[in-house]
Each structure stands twice: as structure tokens, then as C-alpha cells.
């Protein structure tokens, strides 16, 4: 097996970005969960804005508010205005009004897309420390909160700034699909009063804590993830075909150009030997227009997405293997 | 007008069904606590609007936002414009939520509460009033809900009475899981907790189950030794528990286990293969 680093997005401990850790308040977690639960049924993504502040090398997220979904009837809905009004109102009640990022829910882990890249780039450009929080509701329903924070690597930021998405640009910056996003570790922190509240809830709540995590029947989830992986791989192969045709075309063109130049030279030598003036040098590049190279950015995104899928699937299988061995141990005692 | 707290005996006004239970989502109380922590200097309590849904017998509170207000000995001012604006903004995100009442931090219901409640009666049909004791006056953070009912002698002194309602906490499944994670922060000294990943989570769950099993075992030992009297209902639960482990003949179980493990291994292998492929593809293309 390839001995690549296991983490698809580089979560090395020497992040050279200004944010080394994210600290989230429990309230934000609850609000994100609620937002998805109420408004995000189906495969629509729900989005919202994160508010907080920056303390040394930590990004503290203290509050958030949801964004309404794009509906057809609100064609002239002004997002900026909504945001401005919300922030103004929240300032009145002393909630931190520094925009530090945004959150988005994802469907089976598919979030690496052009839209996300653009949004995150504009955020990071405006505010250096912003992050995007990806919340996976389906994985959470399986038993453990799945919340990840990502930022664009500085290299990718540079490329986005130049808008140079060609192959040479990417090669220059040495951006592979593995260093597109960097994951920032998250820590949840609660204030004392909230801890009091948690004690209270534990006492009062009659809901037994469900142990979904230990359930063995999760093959449907695996199926879905693999399905999406296959779709992406199909996209990838299409892209590869495009690239192959492009490179074939370029090489054919090179050959044609070469032949043309040779023929020219031959003719010129012939003419010289006959004493006639040589044919004028024509502009070769105008005659043979090079074919348009396919955009590399999409390939990069698809590769990144495939990588994320693979990561989640592997996590999932390792969990399941553990559970299966536990079930075996349980049976072993009985039989 | 004194605000007495008596069990509901007043005749309900015709045509309006009065809810008996208030279901609260923990996110609401967390929000309230947070606004209390951020209150202005000098303010002793914060108030705000409650949003949610109403059905025949209960009211479900799903969201809230705080409203700036000023309170002094003899007067109270609430920024109603702000309240309206915020409600409009919230409606854009979740159009199904309506104003169902208001909240205040603190333990008692004061005279000012009556005035504020009146204002909210204009916004909602039967507004409920929620108090969250953030100052822990009663020793713990009690959350209580009230409905108002008129009382007094008609034609003469009329007042308002707040009748208590029962409060229940409801969770969505995912909320449950979120709360479980948050509970872990209680025990750590810095009140923080990282998000664990894959196998550690399974290990954690297994440890929890093991703990529960050992408690049950300790109880059984006590019963057998005669220290504790046996409880039949507990015995029935225990029997259910033991029955839950399915009795499968050994070979069948072996085959099931093996096929499952094979599936998972195959998937792992394929994903590793895919990852290698895209790595190769990248190298070839960028070349």
C-alpha cells in the first residue's frame, strides 16, 4: 500500500497559519445542530455565519446565526442586508460581532466544490483567520459529533489571488490535492454557567442516551458513501479523458508544425538553389492555434473530494471492524 | 397587583386551548444563559423573546433571542422595535417559528414582568413566560414556565396571576449526541474537550457499556448475597437484556462475521487503491 500520510488534508502540528486551534462554545454546536435539523431536511445544504474573536493563536467562536436558504420567490433577497442587520442587532445585545467564518452542512462528506473554495477565499482574504466549519449531520446521527474546521493553505490562497488556475500555475505553487485545505483542531469549551446548565439537564432529562455508535447495522451508510465515491471517480475519469485528448491534440499539432517548418525549409533551399527569393516567413503560431488546455482546478477539486470520501470511508470501516470484533467476543461467551 | 402562584383553577377563556406542557430544547436555555453572561453593566436580568411552535396540548420552544431593555425601580423600557426586527430576520430563516412568549432570567416574577407580559400578549395569543434562574438563587438553575390568567373581582380590582406549567426537555437525536459531547466538558478542569475520532469513540462507548454492565453486576451480587431485596421488574429487565444477545449457532455466526469483515477489508483496500490512483494522476498531469 502507498505509504502516504494517512491524513488527506494536512493536519500537521506545524501549521504555518495564524490559527492553530479553534475553540467553540457549546452553544454554537447546539445552534448548528438545530439549524440543520429544522431547515435542512433533504440534501440541501444549510449555511450560516460564525461570530467570535481571535485570541493569540486561537480562534474562539462564541456565537453564530443561520442564513436563510435561497428560495425562488426571494429573488431579490438581499443577503448582505440580512447580514448587516443581524450583526447590528446582535451588537446591541453584546454578542461578538466579528465575522470569523462560516459553517455549512454537508451530505455524506461532499463539500469540496468550487463554490466552497470561492466563499472561503473571499472570507480568508477579508479576514485572515476565518475558517469554514463543516458539519456532517448523517455521521453525527450515527453516534458521534462530526464537526471539522478547514482553512485554505497559504499556497492555495496565492493561486486564488492570481486567478491562475492553469497547470503551470499549479505546478509553480506546488499545490496538490493534499495541500488544498488544512484542518484545524477543534476544542469545545463551556463557561461555568453552562456547566451548571448541563448538570441540570442531566438530572432532568428522561431521554436515555442512545448508543447509536455501537449499532452494527450501518451498511446503508457505507453504500451511500461508496456510491458518491463512484460518481466522483466517474467525473475524474471524464476529466482524465479530456486531458488525454488535449495532450494528444497538442502533440499532433507540434508534429504538424514541425512538418510545416521542414517543408518550408526544403522549399526555401530549393528556391535558393534555383535563385528565387525565399518565401516569406509566416507567423506559425497564428496558423496553428494551440488547443485550449483544460482547466486544472476542477481536477484538483475532484481529487480533493475523492480523498475526503476515502478518508471518511476508511474511518467508518475501522470503526465497524472494531464493533464486529466486539460482537464476536460477546458471542464467544455464549456459544 | 400581587403576582400569586397558585395552581390553575381559573376557568379558561373560551375558544383558547391552554397548553399544559412546555417542551424546551436545550439550545434555548443555553442561549439564555449566554445572553445573561453578556448582559450590560448594571442590569440584573435579561429578557428576550421565545420562538417556537404551538400545538394542541403543548408548546415547543425551539429558538430565542434577547431584547435590550432597561429596568429601574419604577419604570421599565423594552426596545420593541428591536424585537420586531429580530423576529422578522428570524422568520426569514425559519418561517414556521412564531412568537410564543418571552423569558427573563432570575427567580421571581416582578411587577415589571406583568407589564412586559402584557406587551407580549399583543404579539402572541397565549404567551408563556419562562424564568431561568441564572443567579442560582434557588440553589440550582431552575427553569420554570408560567401562563397568565386574570384574577380578581370583576369590575373591581383585577390582577394577573401566573400559573405554572410543567417543563420538559426535548431533544432531536443529533441534539442528544451533541449534548453528550458537551457533558464531557464538565469533568475536565479547563472545561474543554477535543473532538475524538473513529476508534477512540468506539472505545469510549464500549467503556461506557462496560461501566453500566458492572453496575448491574454489582446489583445482582448484592441481591444474591441477600443485601438488597430483589425487585421483580428489574429482574424482568435483566432477562430481556440477556435475551437480546441472539443465540446463533457457532458456524453461522463465523460465516456472518467473516463475510462482514471481508466486505470491510475490501472497501478499505479499494479506497486505498483510489487514493494511490489520484496521487499518480496528479503526478502525471502536473509533470
Instruction: Compute the average pLDDT of chain B.
Output: 77
In helices, the fraction of residues of chain A equals: 40-55%
Provide the β-strand percentage band of chain B: 15-25%
The SS-based structural class of chain A is alpha/beta
Separate helix tally of chain A: 10
Structure description:
The complex is a heterodimer of chains A (335) and B (287). Chain A is of the alpha/beta class and 335 residues long. Chain A contains ten helices and eight strands. In chain A, a hairpin with a 2-residue loop joins strand 2 (47-55) and strand 3 (58-66). In chain A, helix 8 runs antiparallel to helix 10. The longest helix of chain A has 56 residues, at 219-274. Chain A starts with 20 loop residues before the first strand and ends with a helix. The longest helix of chain B has 37 residues, at 250-286. Chain B is α/β, with parallel strands linked by helices. Chain B is extended. Chain B is 46% helix and 23% strand. In chain B, strands 1-3-2-6-7-8-9 form a seven-stranded mixed beta barrel. Chain B has a two-stranded antiparallel sheet with strand order 4-5. Chain B has helices at residues 26-37, 80-93, 111-123, 173-187, 198-224, 232-244, 250-286, and strands spanning 21-24, 47-54, 58-67, 69-71, 76-78, 98-105, 128-132, 143-152, 158-169, 192-194.
Amino acid at each position: 500500500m502507498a505509504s502516504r500520510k494517512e491524513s488527506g488534508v494536512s493536519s500537521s502540528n506545524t501549521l504555518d497559519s495564524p490559527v492553530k486551534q479553534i475553540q467553540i462554545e457549546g452553544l454554537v454546536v447546539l445552534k448548528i445542530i438545530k439549524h440543520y435539523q429544522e431547515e435542512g431536511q433533504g440534501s440541501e445544504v444549510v449555511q450560516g455565519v460564525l461570530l467570535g474573536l481571535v485570541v493569540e493563536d486561537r480562534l474562539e467562536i462564541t456565537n453564530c446565526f443561520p442564513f436563510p436558504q435561497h428560495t425562488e420567490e426571494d429573488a431579490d433577497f438581499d443577503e448582505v442586508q440580512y447580514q448587516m442587520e443581524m450583526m447590528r442587532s446582535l451588537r446591541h445585545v453584546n454578542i461578538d460581532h466579528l465575522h470569523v467564518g462560516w459553517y455549512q452542512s454537508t451530505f455524506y462528506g461532499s463539500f469540496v466544490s468550487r463554490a466552497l473554495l470561492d466563499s472561503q477565499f473571499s472570507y480568508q482574504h477579508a479576514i485572515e483567520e476565518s475558517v469554514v466549519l463543516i458539519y456532517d449531520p448523517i455521521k453525527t446521527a450515527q453516534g458521534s459529533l462530526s464537526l471539522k474546521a478547514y482553512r485554505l493553505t497559504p499556497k492555495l490562497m496565492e493561486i486564488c489571488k492570481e486567478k491562475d488556475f492553469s497547470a503551470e500555475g499549479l505546478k509553480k505553487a506546488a499545490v496538490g490535492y493534499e495541500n488544498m485545505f488544512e484542518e484545524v483542531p477543534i476544542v469545545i469549551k463551556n463557561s461555568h454557567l453552562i456547566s451548571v446548565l448541563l448538570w441540570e439537564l442531566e438530572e432532568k432529562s428522561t431521554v436515555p442516551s442512545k448508543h447509536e455508535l455501537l449499532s452494527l447495522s450501518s451498511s446503508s451508510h457505507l453504500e451511500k458513501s461508496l456510491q458518491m465515491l463512484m460518481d466522483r471517480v466517474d467525473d475524474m475519469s471524464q476529466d482524465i479523458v479530456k486531458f488525454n485528448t488535449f495532450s494528444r491534440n497538442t502533440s499532433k499539432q507540434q508534429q504538424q508544425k514541425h512538418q510545416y517548418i521542414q517543408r518550408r525549409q526544403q522549399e526555401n533551399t530549393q528556391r535558393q538553389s534555383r535563385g528565387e527569393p525565399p518565401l516569406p516567413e509566416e507567423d506559425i503560431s497564428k496558423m496553428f492555434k494551440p488547443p485550449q488546455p483544460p482547466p486544472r482546478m476542477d481536477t484538483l477539486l475532484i481529487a480533493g473530494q475523492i480523498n475526503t470520501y476515502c478518508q471518511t470511508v476508511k474511518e467508518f470501516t475501522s470503526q465497524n471492524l472494531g464493533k464486529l470484533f466486539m460482537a464476536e467476543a460477546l458471542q464467544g461467551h455464549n456459544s | 397587583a400581587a403576582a400569586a402562584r397558585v395552581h390553575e383553577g381559573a376557568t379558561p377563556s373560551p375558544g383558547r386551548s391552554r397548553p399544559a406542557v412546555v417542551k424546551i430544547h436545550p439550545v434555548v436555555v443555553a442561549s439564555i444563559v449566554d445572553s445573561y453572561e453578556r448582559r450590560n453593566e448594571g442590569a440584573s436580568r435579561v429578557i428576550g423573546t421565545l420562538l417556537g411552535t404551538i400545538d394542541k396540548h403543548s408548546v415547543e420552544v425551539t429558538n430565542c433571542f434577547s431584547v435590550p431593555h432597561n429596568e429601574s425601580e419604577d419604570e421599565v423600557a423594552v426596545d420593541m422595535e428591536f424585537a420586531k426586527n429580530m423576529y422578522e430576520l428570524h422568520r426569514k430563516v425559519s418561517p414556521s417559528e412564531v412568537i410564543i412568549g418571552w423569558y427573563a432570567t432570575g427567580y421571581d416574577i416582578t411587577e415589571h414582568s406583568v407589564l412586559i407580559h402584557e406587551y407580549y400578549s399583543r404579539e402572541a395569543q397565549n404567551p408563556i413566560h419562562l424564568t431561568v434562574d441564572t443567579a442560582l438563587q434557588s440553589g440550582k438553575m431552575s427553569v420554570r414556565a408560567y401562563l397568565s390568567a386574570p384574577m380578581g373581582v370583576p369590575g373591581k380590582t383585577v390582577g394577573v396571576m401566573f400559573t405554572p406549567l410543567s417543563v420538559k426537555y426535548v431533544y432531536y437525536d443529533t441534539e442528544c449526541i451533541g449534548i453528550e459531547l458537551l457533558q464531557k466538558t464538565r469533568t475536565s478542569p479547563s472545561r474543554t474537550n477535543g473532538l475524538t475520532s473513529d476508534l477512540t469513540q468506539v472505545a469510549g462507548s464500549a467503556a461506557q457499556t462496560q461501566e453500566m454492565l458492572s453496575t448491574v453486576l454489582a446489583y445482582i451480587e448484592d441481591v444474591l448475597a441477600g443485601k438488597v431485596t430483589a425487585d421483580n421488574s428489574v429482574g424482568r429487565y435483566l432477562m430481556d437484556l440477556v435475551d437480546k444477545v441472539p443465540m446463533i449457532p457457532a458456524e453461522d455466526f463465523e460465516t456472518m462475521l467473516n463475510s462482514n469483515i471481508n466486505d470491510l477489508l475490501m472497501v478499505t483496500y479499494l479506497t486505498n487503491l483510489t487514493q494511490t490512483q489520484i496521487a499518480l494522476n496528479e503526478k502525471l498531469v502536473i509533470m
